[in-house]
Write a structure and sequence with these properties.
The complex is a heterodimer of chains A (about 260) and B (about 425). With about 260 residues, chain A is an alpha/beta fold. Chain A is built from 8 helices and 10 strands. In chain A, the strands form 2 sheets. Chain A has a 5-stranded mixed β-sheet. In chain A, strands 8-7-6-9-10 form a 5-stranded mixed β-sheet, with helices on both faces. In chain A, α3 runs antiparallel to α6 and α4 crosses α6. The termini of chain A are close together. The mean pLDDT of chain A is about 90. Chain B starts with a strand and ends in an 8-residue tail after the last helix. In chain B, the strands form 4 sheets. Chain B has a 4-stranded parallel β-sheet with strand order 3-2-4-5, sandwiched between helices. Chain B is built from 17 helices and 12 strands. Chain B is an alpha/beta fold. Chain B has one domain. Classes of the chains: A alpha/beta (about 260), B alpha/beta (about 425). At the A-B interface, α2 and β8 of A face α16, β12 and α17 of B.
Chain lengths: ~260, ~425
Amino acid sequence: MITVGIDMGAKNIKVVVLKDREVLARSQEMAGFEPLEAAERAYKRAVEKAGLTEEQVEAVYATGAGRKSAPHTNDSVTEVSAAAKGIVFSNPSVRTVIDIGAEEGRAVKCTEQGKVEDFAINEKCAAGAGSFTEAMARALDVPLAEFGQLSLQSSKSIPMNAQCAVFAESEVVSLVHAKTPKEDISRAVHDAIASRIISMIRRVGINNDVALVGGVSYNPGFVDSLGRGLETAVIVPDNAEYVGALGAAIVAAERN
Amino acid sequence: MAEYKTEPLKCWKKAKELRLKYYKDYQDAHKTGGIRWTGGAWAFDAIPAGLGRDVYNITGEPYGASIAFNKPFSTECLEATEARGWARDLCSYMRNYWGSMYLDKYAFGGEYPKPDFCYQDHICCSHAKWYQHVAEYKNIPYFCIDVSVGPYNELDENRLMYVVNQMHEAIEWLEKTTGRTYQDELLIEAVENELRSTSVWAEISCLNMAKPAPLDEKSMYSLYVHGTLSKHSKEVADFYEELRDELKYRVDNQIAALPNERCRLMSDTQPPWGFLKVFRYLEKFGAISIGSLYTFGLIGLWETKPDGTWGPKTTPMQKGEKITTRDQALRILADWNLAKPEWQHFYDPDLKTKMMLQIVKQWKLDGVMLHLNRGCEGLSCGIMENRLGIAEAGVPVMTFEGNMGDEREFDEKRVMGRIDSFMETLDLQMQTA
């Protein structure tokens, strides 16, 4: 059976084409101000990359913040369920998946069938989400791509107390004025974000193995901070940002 | 998809009329020489009833909730309060109430009716300060009874008398403040009404153990409110008996609140009043909230029965006790109220968790939705401890963030998205008609 999963994320739209439990193609587009058009482009490109025609696709399921407006879809599944399904498919040993996108961070405890046992999502505060990392990188005047690597060069722990992105930025500015090396500030930022996320994960409890998915999983500084804070190895699967779309495609196959 | 028959409550119209009459009576009290007072829904309202049959009160929390339901007026009230420098994280009922007072606008039309005095008790940190400010702003007298004597399971004679003695002082203060002679027979009548209404409300809540449930929580909000307005009044006690009898009929005849009931939930704390559609959204999945510790125990009084189940607290009258003196009435009133379920968690969140799990078990629930209510520090106190306890007991639980009285703190899209996730964990999909 050929199914497609579309993850309508707040910042990026990801598409996965699945045939009989084999991933045929992936594609991604920035959501921008025209997310529906972006989704359309990502969908068409993924189907084309898979060497298929749109008529051959038997079911399309969406997930993500904009899932209810996604094009071509038969139905949708929440980010929580999609993350659980997707991770157990790609990494069968995982029982706790942490999914951190631009606007939301969530922790999901799941069964070996990829069914959700419990979940927690960050509240309105952005302190546990990708957009917070971006804001801090801007405050340090460091490109986001380098921000995580910079963190790995530090071995110093500097506590950051601010919960809120606005006040955290003030704290970063204070550290800059105090001539604190950028790598130490970067690590302080990642440790702070990780501690918020860890407190959320502990709400649902940690069952090993633990995986990190979503866009923030590409930040090695955050992965390092999260692993140290959790005192356990954190698996970052291949194509981690596609796990939600993969989960949606799996659910589409299961329900059709 | 309908599996059960349903029909509107017969006493629904009466419930609405009773509520509007309450607010109108308060507004018009001075026209006939009556007394108006203000205080919280937990105030010992049976005590001022001894001043005469023309004494009317307005309780702040339901009034704040009524304002919250009217979003444009609520925003006006909240902004009026903030413009005076009050912090946005204070009790949102209080901010709505104060806003109405500052604007001199009554939520039910006309000017804010100035009370003759404030009379309150306090277990929650906002309660005493709320009416202290009203009293100062309106230049009226204020009396407050401290009830923070510890949980009911640790109540002893000294703790009880601490409250009873304050009640005696309150009566002396009421006589002095109003110039009226206190009538003990009216106090006794009011205490008996309160015992009856709060015990019968627990009976009503028990009827929701039936499957299908005869009442949904959104409807319960329009019914429990009478106990928060005037639990000491004969009208409320009689109305609750009428409602109980109608619900018994619904249970006997399988008349459901939700015709496609397939999942039973409970919520917690005050709901986001401007977004009660949350409950209608649940219904699209065949899920019904059958109540909560909040709706059952804010005014309802309960006790553990010999078989270990939770049931309506037996009134002294049911035990054959006759109330004949002021002191006896006050002792009974204090003891009765100190057993209030919603007062217990102020001392230990574990007490609340145990009661919630008792509800889960007895009402045969499939999950729990906790409202992380930023508008009420009092009832949200310890709520994450409750979440932990419920989850550890193996009961599915979700949280959502909001505010009972400040719609600006409710993110509708995110909350509905979170409900979608929770429904999926319960294997529920939205049903098409």
